[in-house]
Design a protein that fits this description.
The protein has helices at 51-61, 77-82, 104-116, 142-150, 184-200, and strands at residues 7-10, 15-19, 27-32, 39-43, 70-74, 120-126, 134-137, 155-158, 173-178, 214-223, 230-232, 245-249, 252-255, 261-263, 273-283. It is of the alpha/beta class. It has two domains: 7-200, Zn peptidases (Aminopeptidase), CATH 3.40.630; 219-283. The longest helix is centred in the C-terminal third of the chain and has 17 residues, at 184-200. The protein starts with 6 loop residues before the first strand and ends with a strand.
Length: 284
């Protein structure tokens, strides 16, 4: 490797590995179909969520026939190999990144933005908080809504304005969350969601009919207190009524001051966040 010089290594006619020139920076990019990619599938933004990378491996090993050129990206190979969420910083908080940054994930974020430019992209994530797949988007468009209505998800969460620097903050990017994190079930869900996404956007043969999909808007992040122990008592996507105890912090009951629907909420899923409060808007 030549340090300080970005390189693309061609592994085969359809697979390349990007290396920034800094030891450990590596991103595997595989294309299928003829022409410049118009669709992208992105896995391993977080290294402790291997389901996306495993689902991509299975799909690439299958006999799928592609009708639109599609790009598959395994983003953070170093974190994936280590089994950690990130090496230096959370990649899903630092987009569009900086190719000259000191942090590993900022450099990868810059390359990821470049790789998915011009593509409609699906990112694959996993969670401890819920055992069925659901969608995540920001700044909804008609196309994003249409895709999720036809994908294999029953709920979609709108996180517009929640934070900056995430994949879904990119203009043509949506995410799917599967679970439980670290399980074979998550890999199977991820593969099923990717197949339904690819059929929906016309990248592979198959019909994708609209199905009822509940639409939630996140209104608040529930932060954890440093050093406290938590127990989450409610159920994600089930309404918590005002006055209802939904969690405990160091044994003390946390009571809802107003009704909300918990999303991505769990005691141990995140070091600093208990979860998100959302409102059910209606059908997507």
């Amino acid at each position: 490797m030549v340090f300080g010089v970005p390189l693309l290594f061609v592994l085969s006619s359809d697979t390349t590995v990007y290396e920034s020139g800094v030891l450990g920076d590596s991103m595997k990019i595989t294309t299928r179909g003829t022409g410049d990619p118009e669709v992208a599938v992105v896995g391993a933004v977080h290294g402790d969520e291997p389901c996306g990378a495993r689902a991509i491996e299975r799909l690439l090993a299958s006999d799928l026939k592609f009708e639109r050129p599609t790009k598959f990206v395994v983003v953070n190979e170093e974190a994936l190999e280590r089994g950690v969420r990130f090496v230096d910083v959370d990649l899903n908080q630092v987009l569009p990144g900086d190719p000259n940054a000191d942090e590993h994930e900022r450099r990868l974020a810059a390359q990821l933005v470049q790789e998915v430019e011009g593509c409609f992209a699906l990112g694959i994530h996993s969670t401890h908080s819920f055992n069925e797949p659901f969608g995540v988007l920001s700044n909804p468009t008609d196309r994003k809504r249409k895709v999720f209505r036809r994908m294999a998800v029953d709920q979609v969460v709108d996180t517009t304005g929640l934070s900056e620097g995430r994949c879904v903050d990119q203009p043509r990017f949506v995410d799917v969350e599967v679970g439980p994190q670290g399980t074979e079930k998550a890999v199977e869900q991820a593969e099923h969601c990717v197949r339904s996404f690819l059929a929906t956007v016309g990248a592979i043969p198959g019909s994708a009919r609209p199905t009822p999909t509940d639409y939630y808007e996140v209104t608040e992040i529930e932060e954890k207190q440093l050093g406290s122990e938590y127990e989450f008592l409610a159920r994600n996507f089930s309404k918590v009524e005002a006055g209802e105890t939904y969690a405990r912090r160091d044994g003390e009951e946390l009571v809802a001051d107003e009704s909300f629907w918990p999303v991505l909420a769990s005691a141990g899923g995140h070091d600093t966040i208990l979860g998100y409060r959302a409102q059910l808007v209606g059908e997507l």
